[in-house]
Amino acid sequence: MGKQRRNQRKNAAMLDSDDTDSVSSSSTIRSDQMLGTSVEEVQIDKESALDQSLDALYEKRGSTRENALVAIIEAFNSSLPHEFVEKKFATMLHQYLNSIKKGSAKEVTLASHAIGLLALTAGSGKKAQEILEETVSPISEALKSRSDPSKIASLLDCLAVITFVGGNEPEETDKCMQIMWQVVHPKLGPNVVATKPSPPIITAMVSAWSFLLTTMDGLTLDPKSWQGSISYFSTLLDKDDRSVRIAAGEALALIFEIGNLEKFYSISKGSNDSSTHEGNNSHDVTHIQGLRAKILNQVRNLSAEAGGKGSAKKDLNNQRNTFRDILEFLEDGYSPETSVKIGGESLTTTTWCQLIQLNFLKRFLRGGFIKHMQENEFLHEVFDFAPKRKLLLGGDRISGTEKRMYKSPNSALNKARTRYLNKQRTLAQDKNTGHYALGFDEE
């Protein structure tokens, strides 16, 4: 019953714009019919406005470019301009990258978001791969500046999204995860003083890193990269900032769900002697179990934390609910189940992997989340979600873009990610046994 009540609370808190969306959709249909406005005319107007905004990115005045990026982001949130992307893809990417290289912190923040939207709209394929190839280096350079937390957070979000859409190989994803990690754990050269990352930057890094980890099979992870990450996330659970604690808790839940904990834990280095190796393995299992017990205790405390002075009730409830879900998962193997209403259909998540993906993309897309979930086939594949097709009355006025979208083959999403998501769904179906919750067999 407790689990059911918690899921009901979480479900109620999740986004449900079904009624608003249905009203706006039906009113749009009626307006089109009454005014005789053709879909083609509306499309031309939108493309013209996008053209003007794209031209404005060539202007010298920074505020003009910033306003243009705001308009472009709004356009990509309110519709998926596939035809415009086909025509102007190279120009858009080039101008966005110029803004990242030369713009103010605000312009970099906006351009980062625009690149992420471009990748999500284009979907997986050659364009997404080109975005990733062309953008990783400029983002990596821009991340070296710690001047503005919102700028760093936007760059991390952008890197996460373009890798999620365009990364085809585990090595590519691992490389981008390492770039993120170095924002908080920089590789320092001589005469370089480490600057302490702010809580918003730590939260953004952990969130983006976890989002990409959802696409990685535990077997393909490079252990040299991530040994020690469990210990690091455990230390974050003791930090004062609530958003840092929540991000770290979700990262740990995901790591335990994926399994292969030795790849996230600092394994002792022994000789090649088999007896020594066996001794090291036993030592490592003991330490992993000790760390697991510590994390379990931290999670239990955070799930029941009393509010401190000045503590926002909403934030406190969010933390309690999150850590109650994590505690139930670590103890019993039950992942939180959530459901979001989108255009009359329910999008359901049953694993930490899916929940982290959903929450990240919902936060990234903001006001464009419902539109993209209704019409973005890439996201349909990611979440195995089939929305109702929004045909106009009579059924014969579906746009050419929509026709192409619904006829596109399932191979649009990279096969490795699809296989992994299928694996997660299979695990979710077996969750009642609780055998995979901790990622290793108890000795």
Summed up:
With 443 residues, the chain is mainly α. It contains 20 helices and two strands.
Describe the structure.
- The chain has 443 residues and is mostly helical.
- The chain is 67% helix and 2% strand.
- It has helices at residues 2-13, 18-35, 39-56, 62-78, 82-102, 105-122, 126-142, 149-166, 170-184, 199-213, 223-226, 229-236, 242-258, 274-303, 313-332, 352-365, 369-375, 377-383, 400-407, 415-429; strands at 338-342, 345-349.
- α8 runs parallel beside α10 (199-213).
- It is globular.
- The model is unreliable at 1-6, 8-37, 267-279, 390-419 and 431-443 (pLDDT under 50).
Instruction: Give the overall shape, derived from the CA principal axes.
Output: globular
CATH homologous superfamily annotation of one domain: Leucine-rich Repeat Variant
**Within the CATH hierarchy, at the fold level, what is the topology of one domain?**
Leucine-rich Repeat Variant
Order of helices and strands: HHHHHHHHHHHHHHHEEHHHHH
Percentage of residues assigned to helices: 55-70%
Distance between the termini: 31 Å
Number of helices: 20
DSSP strand content: under 5%
Strand order of the largest sheet: 1-2
Structural class: mainly alpha
Give a count of the beta strands, DSSP E runs of length 2 or more.
2
Mean pLDDT: 78
**What's the level 1 CATH class of one domain?**
Mainly Alpha
Any low-confidence stretches, pLDDT <50, length ≥5? 1-6, 8-37, 267-279, 390-419, 431-443
Assigned CATH architecture of one domain: Alpha Horseshoe
- Gyration radius, in Å: 23 Å
- Main beta-sheet strand count, sense and barrel state: 2 strands, antiparallel
